[in-house]
Design brief:
Blueprint lengths: L8 H8 L6 H8 L3 H13 L3 H14 L3 H11 L3 H15 L1 H4 L4 H9 L3 H10 L2 H14 L8 H7 L5 H15 L6 H15 L4
Helix pairs in contact: 3-4, 3-9, 4-6, 4-9, 6-9, 8-10, 8-12, 9-10
Length: 202
């Protein structure tokens, strides 16, 4: 289904009733109550491609299920690998929600950047307030930030070609996320300080 929502539950019940999964095990997640209904409605309001809506819907569904049950659902549906990744990543994020409040901005962004974007959106729709606020911060404030300096700028400043390039770019990205650099001048100052400190490499 391209857009999975509460109206599809009868379809799901019919589909899974013949499978050895146990509808009772599924219903605790699929009938998660008003929070899940609201999340499905909000997901539809956000819009997106059919793939995005399907992946987000599956992530919302599986958020509420025990991992073994959800895996059986995915196997039964023969979901594409990207759909499965959205579900795996939403489980990972669900299990780490309590950590989000204490992460630095850069650690938060690195964690969420590595996850399927529809898993992040599903978590944002269902997470408790404190975790939702950090995901909101990532979605609207941290994710768009990029270093102003590029490879030619690093060469001009004397950063040697090789692994140091990637290390400097990551440190610049972290500095932007953590508020240690707000523009090109700040970034150049940081790079020159790193070069002096480490003798040509970060």
């Amino acid at each position: 289904w391209s857009d999975i929502g509460p109206s599809d539950l009868n379809k799901a019940k019919s589909f899974f009733s013949s499978a050895p999964l146990g509808w009772d095990a599924l219903s605790s997640g699929l009938f998660y109550g008003r929070a899940l209904d609201a999340a499905f409605a909000a997901s539809r309001a956000l819009g997106g491609s059919s793939d995005q809506l399907r992946q987000r819907g599956l992530a919302l569904w599986t958020w509420t299920l025990p991992e073994e049950t959800a895996q059986a659902v995915l196997d039964r549906l023969r979901c594409p690998s990207e759909d499965q990744r959205a579900c795996y990543d939403v489980w990972l994020l669900r299990d780490r929600l309590v950590e989000l409040a204490d992460l630095s901005n850069s650690a938060l962004a690195r964690l969420l950047n590595g996850l399927h974007p529809e898993a992040v959106t599903a978590a944002w729709l269902l997470a408790p307030f404190a975790a939702r606020a950090r995901i909101e911060q990532y979605r609207h404030s941290l994710r768009p930030l990029r270093p102003a300096l590029r490879a030619p700028d690093l060469e001009r400043l004397g950063v040697p070609r090789g692994p140091a390039f990637g290390q400097v770019l990551q440190r610049l990205q972290d500095a932007r996320w953590d508020g240690l650099a707000e523009g090109r001048d700040d970034e150049e100052r940081l790079v020159l300080n790193w070069l002096l400190e480490f003798g040509g490499a970060p």
